[in-house]
Amino acid sequence: MKKIILSAVFMCVFNVMAFGATATTRTDWNSTAAVNRVNTIGTKIIKANGIGQAITFKVSDQADINAYANINKEVYVYRGLLEYVTSDEELAAVISHELGHILNGHCAKQGVLNTGVNILANVAARKVGTLAAGVGQQLVSTKMSRKDEFEADITGVDLMTKAGYNPLAMISVLNKICGNYVDIFQTHPSGEKRLLNIYNYVEYNYPAKLKTGFKSESYTKALTLLTPTVQKRHNSASLTKKYEKEQKKLLAKKEKRMAKAAKTSTIWDGYYTTLQLMAQ
User: Fold this and answer.
1) What HEC string does the chain produce?
2) Which phi and psi (to 5°) does residue 87 adopt?
3) Each residue's pLDDT tens digit, 81-124
4) Sign (positive/negative) of CA torsion 44, 15, 167, 30?
5) Measured distance CA(243)–CA(251) in Å, rounded
């Protein structure tokens, strides 16, 4: 059991595509300024939302365009991403997304689920073969990861909006990073699906922000991509009804989710701690 738990992945990643970049060290990079910038934005978001969990913000001197949150409630932002975002608004979107993973217990949940899936995969491998068991394991993990990314995105929208940042910056930065790939076996949903999920959520919950817009080339390009789908929904009574039903469900979940923000842990943190104690 102990080996299985330690083999699970406990990072909730904003993006794992490095765009061909390699990890390098730069002597001219001001790490102190970067750490202060990340901590200032992160602390502002935490205070504005009354977040009760003790979260640490850190910066990594790596060129990858990446950020992640881990089981230890740490949010890491890579130098490559800091050099890639064009404003504090976009950086706030990245940080809020990672905070969304922590507040929703995604990292702890993935740790617990990966442990259970690994155990079941070992059993299945003896009965149905290693290849079939591996495919089943991947499908289960992928489905959960996609759901978590959608939830972290909209949680991030709520967090950054309450802290005074423009939620449309989430669309802007994600449009730069996410590819519109076929996502059958991808752990992250395709870019267009994520962008549309965020756009619909902002339109329903923060319509004034949508009217204000966001000044960036990336956001403008995202609108070009999303407008046909949005217009099709506006012109269809059935699609509008489906949209409103989905958003009402998300609104109910939002109220419950934000009510839990002041708590120091999630139920998944408790499950993870129990597994760790069992493994000792």
Assistant:
1) CHHHHHHCCCEEECCCCCCCCCCCCCCCCCHHHHHHHHHHHHHHHHHHHCCCCCCEEEEECCCCCCEEEECCCEEEEEHHHHCCCCCHHHHHHHHHHHHHHHHCCHHHHHHHHHHHHHHHHHHHHHHHCHHHHHHHHHHHHHHHHHHHHHHHHHHHHHHHHHCCCCCHHHHHHHHHHCCCCCCCCCCCCCHHHHHHHHHHHHHHHCHHHHHHCCCCHHHHHHHHHHHHHHHHHHCCHHHHHHHHHHHHHHHHHHHHHHHCCCCCCCHHHHHHHHHHHHHC
2) -160, 165
3) 999 899 999 999 999 999 999 998 887 677 666 665 555 445 54
4) positive
5) 12
Contact status, residue 119 vs residue 4, Cβ threshold 8 Å: yes
Q: How far is CA 218 from CA 61, 79, 96, 100, 225, in A?
A: 25, 20, 19, 23, 11
Strands 74-78 and 56-60: parallel
Token representation of residue 47: 């205070």
Q: Which residues, at least 6 apart from 196, have a Cβ–Cβ distance to it below 8 Å?
A: 226, 229, 230
The catalytic residue positions are 98
pLDDT per residue as tens digits for the range 151-203: 999 999 999 999 999 999 999 999 988 754 433 344 455 578 899 999 999 99
The C-alpha atoms of residue 31 and residue 8 are separated, in whole angstroms, by 31
Q: Under 8 Å CB-to-CB from 70, ≥6 apart: which residues?
A: 10, 11, 12, 76, 107
Q: Please name which of 248, 227, 249, 229 lies closest in space to residue 239, comparing C-alpha atoms.
A: 229
**Can you tell me the distance from the alpha carbon of 271 to that of 253, in angstroms, rounded to the nearest whole number?**
21
